[in-house]
């Protein structure tokens, strides 16, 4: 269909938008380096997961066509490889341009040929003393086995002269203990990379051979592997999976330069890769070193203006967070507001509150030094019932979560792993506390982002804190299902996948369609990371055809193409890619008014979220908070700096409206967080002044009669003699 796009190609369009930030004139130079590194890191994961999956289908002979594009798996691979190759010159040019503009600040990536004679002498000596003793060269030919090459590690490969057949030398391009950036100046800004030095002197590792050609290579292995389970043995199976994944088949070979064709063919045969899976790069094969370069210069012109999460204006320092939530619902917005001064504070207070009886939470990704884990362990050690559902299958966080699960269990926490074949991706917390009269109070938290202090300062996310009893009952049902391996089918207020989210979303969309068909205004809006759920896409197309206005903010892949006449002409799709990763999910149904419904939650409009995971979304019912989210969405729709608009071709262009007045939504939200806190401080100061004035007036009123009386006494002569007795 002309209004649909292949998932993989749509994702590559998203990564192209990330790459655009590496050349954006408003992005400071050292921050541009980060976007180049992010682009590559994203692409690595894409090859490991998505290309790994499509490659497996090709190997298994699958002819099943993609539901959106109609392409078979081989056709999808060809399209992916073509799109990646087309982007590569832009990737290389972005880094070259940034390094060129950084040259006046002293930054220079030196090649061995451009190094001075003194530097070349130093590098040869450095190789012999600091590198060569810790690495070894391996000769490979038909008589010798091919070594295992680690995922994403860099190797120097050399073609060795041989009387017969092909002979290859392979050297690890890292010692594992030395610094990858070799400084050629005092401040480190003039540098060469470790692998470049190893490649230059690789011939010294094969003294009995003549080296004919040389290059650096890096392979990417598939990570498309998963296991199911939920019992006590599941953690051990996950540990085995993590180890096994490191050894899955390669799906890509990157090479630093033109290399002898016969030698390259030989390497591909040994890795069981086709030549189409080989990608040449004329910039370093691993760009993670760019993050280190950012630390070499603190010049404010090279960095973003420093922004620190603010103390949430909605919270007071004088009362516990729990008691404040009992009074009113609270909405938190990250990274603009501090997670440490809000959510972490709630957990820590609850862990030490003798009246709190239980804490239940779902965990997906955590910070390295997690205060969440510390608080949960403290609560358990103090005798509270603590239930933690930790998702061991959180991709690339499996090892971390395995270790966290062990630490939690050692502290006395009850740890479960969720449904057998479904990931639990929800961000849900339920705290129960003793109340007066023997009853209990509950606070429920539902969020769009992980309980991760690090990403909470980098990702945009929303969090609802509420004492609503119906929501607490729904949360209790979710945790009960996670314990028993069942799914919630009916709820009071929450949307809970896999059974009680998509049907409700489709029903609310149907209500807007019905309004439009009856001549009224229908409206559907959403902010999500990705959109590929076929049922939701078809319902959005139906809404557009009925005349419903549909506004979508989709950061990443979007398999629905907007603006296609006859199908999606009433749909607009925009993507915002900027300093912070857009991660919050918002669902809006209906125009402003009492009948409008707004939800926030952990689910994207993707099939994996709506029918193959446990996700939770919560209604925003407080009128103040509804207005705040409506205003947020309008701000996103005004962005003309970091927003891109989807065309009917599926391409994206920068928002051009009001170009003379740049408006960056992320900067606006930070300014708003500062302003809200300042306004609160001003109000508090004014109240203090008013109280002081009031106290002064009261004191004046009390002292005035006494002063008058004293004055009167002072002006009247004192009577002589004794006072008469009174009866």
Structure description:
ATP binds at residues 42, 459, 555, 583. The active site is at residue 425. Residues 690-704 have a biased composition (Basic residues). Pfam families: PP_kinase, PP_kinase_C, PP_kinase_C_1, PP_kinase_N. Catalyzes the reversible transfer of the terminal phosphate of ATP to form a long-chain polyphosphate (polyP). With 727 residues, the chain is α/β, with parallel strands linked by helices. It folds into 4 domains: 1-105, Up-down Bundle (Methane Monooxygenase Hydroxylase, Chain G, domain 1), CATH 1.20.58; 107-229 and 249-273, polyphosphate kinase like, CATH 3.30.1840.10; 321-493, 2-Layer Sandwich (Endonuclease, Chain A); 496-672, Endonuclease Chain A (Endonuclease, Chain A), CATH 3.30.870. The protein has 18 helices and 28 strands. The strands form 5 sheets. Strands 18-26-24-23-19-20-21-27-28 form a 9-stranded mixed β-sheet, with helices on both faces. Strands 10, 11, 12, 13, 15, 16, 17 and 22 form an 8-stranded mixed β-sheet that branches. Helix 12 links the parallel strand 12 (385-390) and strand 13. Helix 10 runs parallel beside helix 11. The radius of gyration is 32 Å and the shape is globular. The chain starts with 6 loop residues before the first helix and ends in a 12-residue tail after the last helix. The relative contact order is 0.08.
């Amino acid at each position: 269909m002309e209004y649909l796009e292949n998932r993989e190609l749509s994702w590559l369009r998203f990564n192209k938008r990330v790459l655009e930030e590496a050349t954006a004139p408003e992005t400071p130079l050292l921050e541009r380096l980060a976007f180049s590194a992010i682009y590559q890191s994203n692409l690595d994961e894409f090859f490991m997961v998505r290309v790994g999956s499509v490659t497996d289908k090709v190997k298994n002979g699958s002819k099943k066509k993609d539901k959106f594009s109609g392409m078979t798996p081989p056709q999808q691979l060809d399209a992916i490889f073509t799109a990646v190759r087309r982007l590569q010159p832009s990737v290389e040019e972005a880094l070259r341009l940034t390094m060129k503009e950084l040259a006046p600040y002293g930054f220079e990536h030196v090649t061995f040929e451009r190094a001075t004679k003194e530097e070349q002498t130093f590098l040869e000596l450095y190789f012999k003393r600091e590198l060569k003793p810790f690495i070894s060269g391996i000769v490979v030919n038909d008589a010798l086995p091919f070594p295992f090459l680690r995922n994403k590690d860099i190797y120097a490969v050399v073609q060795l002269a041989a009387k017969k057949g092909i002979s290859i030398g392979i050297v690890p391009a890292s010692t594992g203990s030395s610094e990858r950036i070799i400084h050629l100046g005092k401040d480190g800004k003039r540098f060469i990379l470790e692998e470049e030095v190893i490649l230059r002197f690789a011939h010294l590792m094969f003294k009995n051979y003549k080296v004919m050609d040389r290059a650096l290579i890096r392979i990417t292995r598939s990570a498309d592997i998963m296991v199911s389970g939920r019992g006590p043995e599941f953690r051990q199976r996950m540990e085995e999976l993590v180890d096994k994944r490191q050894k899955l088949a390669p799906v890509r070979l990157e090479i630093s330069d033109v290399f002898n064709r016969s030698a390259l063919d030989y390497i591909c045969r040994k890795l069981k890769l086709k030549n189409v899976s080989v990608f040449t790069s004329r910039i370093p094969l691993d760009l993670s070193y760019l993050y280190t370069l950012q630390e070499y210069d603190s010049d404010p012109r090279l960095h973003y203006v420093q922004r620190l999460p603010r103390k949430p204006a909605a919270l007071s320092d004088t009362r516990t967070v729990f008691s404040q939530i009992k009074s009113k619902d609270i909405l938190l917005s990250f990274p603009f507001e501090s997670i440490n001064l809000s959510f972490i504070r709630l957990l820590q207070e609850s862990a030490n509150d003798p009246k709190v009886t239980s804490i239940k939470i779902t965990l997906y990704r955590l910070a390295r030094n997690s205060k969440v884990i510390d608080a949960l362990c403290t609560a358990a050690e103090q005798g509270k019932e603590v239930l933690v559902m930790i998702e061991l299958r959180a991709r690339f966080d499996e090892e971390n979560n395995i270790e966290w699960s062990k630490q939690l269990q050692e502290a006395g926490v009850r740890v479960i792993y969720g449904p057998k074949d479904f990931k639990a991706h929800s961000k849900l917390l339920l705290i129960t506390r003793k109340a007066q009269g023997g009853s209990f109070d509950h606070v429920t938290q539902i969020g769009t982002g992980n309980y991760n202090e690090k990403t909470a300062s980098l990702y945009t996310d929303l969090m609802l804190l509420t004492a609503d009893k119906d929501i607490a009952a729904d949360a209790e049902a979710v945790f009960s299902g996670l314990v028993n391996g069942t799914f919630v089918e009916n709820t009071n207020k929450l949307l809970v996948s896999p059974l009680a989210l998509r049907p409700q979303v489709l029903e609310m969309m149907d209500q807007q369609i019905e309004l439009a068909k009856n001549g009224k205004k229908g409206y559907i809006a959403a902010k999500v990371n990705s959109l590929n759920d076929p049922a939701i896409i078809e319902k959005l197309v139906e809404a557009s055809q009925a005349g419903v206005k549909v506004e979508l903010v989709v950061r990443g892949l979007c398999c629905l193409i907007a603006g296609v006449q006859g199908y999606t002409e009433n749909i607009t799709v925009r993507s915002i890619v900027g300093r912070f990763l857009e991660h919050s999910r918002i669902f809006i149904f209906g125009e402003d008014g009492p009948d409008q419904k707004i939800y926030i939650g952990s689910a994207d409009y993707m099939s994996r979220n709506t029918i193959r995971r446990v996700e939770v979304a919560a209604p925003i019912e407080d009128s103040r908070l509804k207005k705040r989210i409506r205003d947020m969405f309008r701000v996103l729709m005004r962005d003309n700096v970091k927003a891109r608009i989807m065309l009917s071709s599926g391409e994206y262009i920068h928002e051009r409206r009001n170009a003379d007045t740049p408006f960056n939504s992320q900067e606006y939200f930070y300014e708003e967080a500062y302003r809200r806190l300042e306004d609160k401080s001003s109000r508090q100061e004014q109240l203090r002044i008013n109280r002081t004035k009031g106290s002064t007036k009261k004191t004046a009123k009390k002292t005035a009669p006494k002063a008058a009386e004293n004055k009167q006494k002072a002006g009247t002569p004192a009577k002589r003699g004794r006072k008469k007795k009174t009866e």
